[in-house]
């Protein structure tokens, strides 16, 4: 945890914070924190700064806040991802938070197993917990928006065209397509399919909505590897 994130619920007053959960355990066990120490803090979806520990014991820690910095800029990227298996999604959500993705859409696809949509992981609070874990790693405070789309066709016909209208939009798919390149300062929409890739029909619908096909190389990649590879290209292009 490289930043201690908090919300309004944690505030004693406008300038004082109290934590008594896993954040306290981290302060004690990892930082060995004592009164007078300062740690990096940030208000969820707000400013960053420092917190000076005024008191700490086994029950809670109180910190005096000085929030004087803006969070880091987001990557100008919207990620559209066919819903992966829950174990993989946990890791991807952390990566989304860590890499600074602005917007995430989890969509259905022919090759997405129906049982994936029943996972408790998709509860809004749980999704946010994993995104926050990524933000803590990256010292960021701005939570990416995360939307669920249980039906492919309504998403690709009604939502995706609007996303593509304001960005350079690509769909990553195996085949003889240009290799993915970093966006040149423009917003980007990146669509990545399920294990085994999108069907031909789904690729066609993505193209009709404004996406151009790109390749991530000749190898067949797992979804989380494809996400990491695609994000690496964009982070390198952004100087990240």
Task: Decide which structural class fits the backbone.
Answer: alpha/beta
CATH topology of the largest domain: Alpha/beta knot
CATH superfamily grouping of the largest domain: SPOUT methyltransferase, trefoil knot domain
Radius of gyration, in angstroms, nearest whole number: 20 Å
Number of domains: 2
How many strands in all? 12
> Helical residue percent?
25-40%
* Average pLDDT score: 93
**Spatial strand arrangement across the major sheet:** 1-4-5-6-3-2
Q: What spatial form do the alpha-carbon principal axes imply? A: elongated
Order of helices and strands: EEEHEEEEHEHEHEEHEH
List segments where confidence is low: pLDDT < 50 over at least 5 consecutive residues: none
CATH class of the largest domain: Alpha Beta
Please give the alpha-carbon distance between the first and last residues: 20 Å
Strand content: 25-35%
What kind of sheet is the major sheet?
6 strands, mixed
Instruction: Just name the CATH architecture of the largest domain.
Output: 3-Layer(aba) Sandwich
How does this structure look, described?
The chain has 240 residues and is α/β, with parallel strands linked by helices. Helices cover 32% and strands 28% of the residues. It has two domains: 4-69, Ribosomal Protein L25, Chain P (Beta Barrel); 75-237, Alpha/beta knot (3-Layer(aba) Sandwich). It has helices spanning 22-31, 86-99, 124-138, 152-165, 200-208, 223-237, and strands spanning 4-6, 11-13, 16-19, 38-43, 48-56, 61-69, 75-82, 101-107, 145-149, 168-172, 188-192, 212-214. The protein has a six-stranded mixed beta sheet. A six-stranded parallel beta sheet has the order 9-8-7-11-10-12, sandwiched between helices. Helix 2 links the parallel strand 7 and strand 8 (101-107).
């Amino acid at each position: 945890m490289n930043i201690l994130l908090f919300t309004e619920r944690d505030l004693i007053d406008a300038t004082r914070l109290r934590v008594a959960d896993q954040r306290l355990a981290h302060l004690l066990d990892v930082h060995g924190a004592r009164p007078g120490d300062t740690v990096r803090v940030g208000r969820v979806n707000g400013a960053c700064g420092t917190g000076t520990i005024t008191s700490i014991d086994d029950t809670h820690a109180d910190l005096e806040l000085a929030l004087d910095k803006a969070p880091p800029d987001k990557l100008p990227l919207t990620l559209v991802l066919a819903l992966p298996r829950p174990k993989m999604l946990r890791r991807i959500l952390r990566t989304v938070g860590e890499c600074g993705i602005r917007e995430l859409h989890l969509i259905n696809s022919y090759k997405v197993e129906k049982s994936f949509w029943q996972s408790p992981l998709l509860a809004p609070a749980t999704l946010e917990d994993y995104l926050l874990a990524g933000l803590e790693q990256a010292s960021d405070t701005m939570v990416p928006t995360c939307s669920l789309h249980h039906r492919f066709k309504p998403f690709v016909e009604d939502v995706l065209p609007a996303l593509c209208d304001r960005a350079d939009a690509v769909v990553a798919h195996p085949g003889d397509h240009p290799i993915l390149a970093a966006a040149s300062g423009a917003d980007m929409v990146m669509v990545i399919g399920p294990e085994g890739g999108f069907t031909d029909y789904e690729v066609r619908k993505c193209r009709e909505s404004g996406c151009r096909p790109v390749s991530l190389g000749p190898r067949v990649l797992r979804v989380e590897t494809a996400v990491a590879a695609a994000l690496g290209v964009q982070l390198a292009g952004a100087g990240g």
